[in-house]
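Hi V.,

You were right to ask for the full record rather than a summary. Here it is.
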Amino acid sequence: MNYPVDIHSHTVASTHAYSTIHDYVAEAKRKGIRLFATTDHGPEMADAPHFWHFINLRVLPRIVDGVGILRGIEANIKNVFGEIDCSERMLEGLDIVLAGFHEPVFAPSDQETHTRAMINAIRSGTVDIITHPGNPAYPIDIPAVVAAAVSHQVALEINNSSFCHSRRGSEANCQTLVEVARDLGATLVLGSDSHVAYSLGDFSYAQQLIEKTGFPQERLLNGSPQRLLQFLTQRGHPEIPELMAW
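Predicted structure:
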């Protein structure tokens, strides 16, 4: 199955990535991806864009060559209180907020600390999707995190890059997370975590896990642009007229 939505991509604004918005639009059109989010790293990462980058995302068209673009960020969970490096001013202009652990900002600690920080980020109300929660460098209490995500209507990402490029050893954690999410009624989303346009929409490994565990497709946000947009509206984001009528 080819999914028409990808919520996780990085541009040259994060200088360890290699593609522009133009590159992503062309690749999305080629692959039949109807909606993607540009989600460069939050400003506390060493090579992340300045906060003006996120404020100025308003210059991006909503639709280019039939491809919808969401203005987003992959913020960093900074501390045990679940704070993220995304200011109120930045949040005002963003359609989607992803957040996760990254070593340069939050050094790996112990399961209790990671779990507390992630649950506090979920409870904050500012984070829509937790990225790569299966990262073995940051062990968590998976049932506790999934239960918090269900309670606060936050989605959890199954990150395809974790199976092939980054965070090696994520498979067992991700399988447990998907199984617990299936049983507790959580919402999941597949993310390519693309750092070059060619991998946009590549969910090959993550999709195998979804199929293996029998996770219900109706609780997967990649199913349609409307499903993701409705989720974001329910999370409190304003409707986007151009995309709602598209």
